């Protein structure tokens, strides 16, 4: 089942985003504010380490001589890992003929995609399921039962314009999606089509 703007040809598919989980695909217009973030963790583990560090004698010596025991070596960076690839997306939905199917249902399903299925009292609930992500037919990340992308947050304008039947006439969803793990250098080309 498709919900959102999948049938609209006003804009090219290169300006659309598809988010799929199970048998439901949400299609919206991706805005120019949408980005891809690849963050590397770099640390200076020797920062603050020096001969006499913390010593009052060393502090007094620096004060009197203007010399320090800190070296460039103290600021050397080491790579400490990478975060998963993150996509902060702004997705627009606009009603053309069926506001429920084209705007309300996408908001509902994206909220549902991001949520777990928890048990009332047992500790065997279901974590949120992965989604597949297709941004403009250019960045495609498929999902499997346990891997793919995960939705971190879903936000929408609750005060967006509504139709006479009470459905949103248009809305913008702020969606943050990330891969389930960091990607290796050799894997990066595989997500670009």
Biggest sheet, open or closed, and with what strands and sense?
8 strands, mixed
Distance between the termini: 24 Å
Total number of β-strand segments? 10
Q: What proportion of the residues is helical, as a percent range?
A: 10-25%
Mean pLDDT: 88
Number of helices: 3
Strand content: 25-35%
Shape: elongated
Helix and strand string, N-terminal first? Answer: EEEEHEEHEEEEH
Low-confidence stretches: none
The Cα radius of gyration reads 24 Å
**Structural class, from secondary structure content?**
alpha+beta
Which descriptors apply to this entry?
193 residues, alpha+beta, eight-stranded mixed sheet, two-stranded antiparallel ribbon, 3 helices, 10 strands, elongated
Structure description:
β2 (16-21) and β3 form a beta hairpin. The protein starts with a strand and ends with a helix. Helix content is 15%, strand content 31%. Strands 1, 2, 3, 6, 7, 8, 9 and 10 form an eight-stranded mixed beta sheet that branches. A two-stranded antiparallel sheet has the order 4-5. It is elongated, with a radius of gyration of 24 Å. The protein is α+β, with helices and mostly antiparallel strands. The relative contact order is 0.21.
Topology:
Layout: E1 2-4, E2 16-21, E3 24-30, E4 40-43, H1 56-65, E5 78-82, E6 86-94, H2 99-113, E7 132-135, E8 139-141, E9 149-156, E10 170-179, H3 188-191
Please summarize what this structure is:
This protein has 193 residues and is an alpha+beta fold. The chain has three helices and ten strands, in the order ββββαββαββββα.
């Amino acid at each position: 089942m498709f919900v959102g703007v999948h049938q609209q040809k006003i804009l090219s598919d290169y300006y659309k985003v598809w988010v799929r989980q199970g048998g439901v695909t949400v299609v919206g217009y991706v805005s120019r504010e949408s980005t891809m973030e690849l963050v590397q963790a770099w640390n200076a583990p020797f920062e603050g380490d020096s001969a006499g560090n913390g010593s009052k004698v060393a502090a007094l010596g620096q004060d009197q001589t203007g010399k320090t025991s800190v070296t460039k070596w103290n600021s050397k960076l080491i790579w400490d890992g990478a975060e998963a690839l993150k996509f902060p997306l702004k997705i627009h939905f606009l009603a053309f003929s069926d506001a429920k199917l084209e705007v309300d249902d996408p908001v509902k399903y994206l909220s549902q995609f991001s949520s777990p299925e928890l048990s009332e009292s047992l500790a065997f609930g279901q974590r949120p399921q992965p989604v597949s992500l297709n941004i403009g037919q250019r960045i495609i990340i498929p999902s499997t039962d346990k891997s793919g992308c995960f939705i971190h947050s879903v936000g929408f304008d609750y005060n967006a314009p509504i139709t006479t039947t009470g459905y949103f006439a248009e809305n913008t969803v702020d969606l943050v999606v990330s891969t389930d793990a960091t990607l290796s250098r050799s894997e990066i080309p595989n997500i670009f089509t």
